[in-house]
Amino acid sequence: MQTKAYAAQSASTPLAPFTIDRREPGPKDVLIDILYCGVCHSDLHTARGEWAGVQFPAVPGHEIVGRVSAVGSGVTKFRPGQIVGVGCMVDSCRECESCREGFEQYCDGPVGFTGTYNGPVGGGFNTYGGYSAAITVDEDFVLAIRHKEEDLAAAAPLLCAGITTWSPLRHWNAGPGKKVGVVGIGGLGHMGVKLAKALGAHVVAFTTSAAKIADGKKLGADEVVVSKNEDEMKAHANSFDLILNTVAAPHDLDAYMVLLKRDGAMCLVGVPPAPHPSPAVFNMILKRRSLGGSLIGGIAETQEMLDFCAAHGITSDIEMITMQEIDTAYDRMMKSDVKYRFVIDMASLKAA
Ligand code: NAP
Ligand code: ZN
Ligand code: ZN
Fold it and tell me: I need a surface site. Which of 160, 251, 269, 341 has the fewest CB within 10 A?
């Protein structure tokens, strides 16, 4: 099926209209008419070729909310007309230990999981994401969206920014009695603050932008620290159970490692194009601190997060854009000028 999309043809060309071919729904497939697609910093890293292994043409977009327009004969979980979501994955091997345990994002199969765009982690073929009018997805990788109609655009970023922060918050037991830091108030960070707060933790947001202090508090942070201010940073030494670091650029990790208490952990979710400077070993061994990382989240935990957010009225703070405005949105994202997630109204693509 010929489908309208927006693609980067190379790392140095702006995104532009492109026609892609979507498969007719097979027995287990759901065909989705895309209503909204969030704009993740990973879309920018991909479209601009900042990571190794990017395939072109690249059609980014993995925060998809849409309406089911058709289902295959064997589909049991979804029906036409239903509002659904698609996140960062559209397939995995389904047989390995990680897949069987519901952590498809860590699929140990021969090529790993299949990204919603840029194909399987191990390569082989390309896939096209949500900057498009429609997508065909196996029902096992489709999520039910239970938010109110008027919240659907703002629910789209939950499909990546939401689950990418939810999964480590749950894994490291963020909750009552825990002090949780979130570094970077961007797309991921602002969801991390909201979710950590909703889980009952004491939340401290770290920002490089003093202009975001008031917003950080509105989002739910108990405290907001401007990370360039050394005294403000020192006041939190040895006190965090968990720090979630969402920053998309290389920076000094030691500034945060020393804020962890004994046995505390910093989880990296930001994926800068170049490595961070190595953290100092002494900072880690003296208090048995750990440094880890986390990748998006499994399908079951994504549904759990979506249902938690629907029940608690949690959505993303968004700025709606047209498909045609995507490159300007990327440029603003590079300047940390996003409040706090761009979402593309896909009607603008369909009308063009
Ligand atoms: P974003 O909206 O651009 O937010 C990143 C935030 O980091 C900025 O708003 C800014 O917050 C802070 N920041 C930016 N440059 C900085 C610098 N040089 N030094 C310190 N802070 C800086 O991006 P996002 O969509 O949240 O994505 C963040 C990163 O996570 C990206 O690398 C993305 O690829 C990655 N990601 C990873 C996963 C995963 O599964 N692990 C999933 C999705 C995205 P302040 O203004 O508050 O400082
Ligand atoms: Zn993403
Ligand atoms: Zn697998």
Answer: 251
